[in-house]
Amino acid sequence: MIRKNPRGDLPRIHPSAFVDPTAILCGLVVVEENVFVGPYAVIRADEMNQEGEIEPIVIGAHSNIQDGVVIHSKSGAGVKIGQRTSIAHRAIVHGPCSVGNGVFVGFNSVLFNCRIDDGCVVRYNAVVDGVHLPRGFYVRSTERIGPETDLATLSQVSVDASEFSEDVARTNNELVHGYKRIQNEF
């Protein structure tokens, strides 16, 4: 479902993107080319700051927002998802938040008030809150990363983890083409 926010902003979706009919996109959302938005995802840019302003939620080209993902933002703050980035099933990305290019965010993970640079991997059920995660860092499953975390204790993304991330992005890009081809059949 594509709908306006109370301020009247409508999502802008590139014609090559695929948004599942069960997904909800509301307000100042920008979906770039060849993006996959899966079933029951919710991307909602509707909260304004005190001046009535809203920064956009931008989903970068060739990225995928999988089933049940929620992307929202507090008090008009922006959310930026980079290119070729995968946000896996039921993850929550809550702004203010910036996620770089080629990032993988695992199932049920939560990102809030953070910046995640290019090539990072956040595995399932992890929390990244209030921190800047530099390029190429690896967050293990169930780990909580915050301002008190010594980033020197984190690993760098391995070749296997990077290849897995690229495979997920590639697979979901293929889904875009397949669903676009049959979208008038359902």
TrEMBL record:
Belongs to the gamma-class carbonic anhydrase family. Pfam families: Hexapep (PF00132). CDD domains: LbH_gamma_CA (cd00710). This is Carbonic anhydrase or acetyltransferase, isoleucine patch superfamily. Keywords: Transferase. It comes from Chitinasiproducens palmae. Gene3D superfamilies: Hexapeptide repeat proteins. One of its GO terms (molecular function) is transferase activity. The keyword Transferase applies. PANTHER family: CARBON DIOXIDE CONCENTRATING MECHANISM PROTEIN CCMM, CARBOXYSOME ASSEMBLY PROTEIN CCMM.
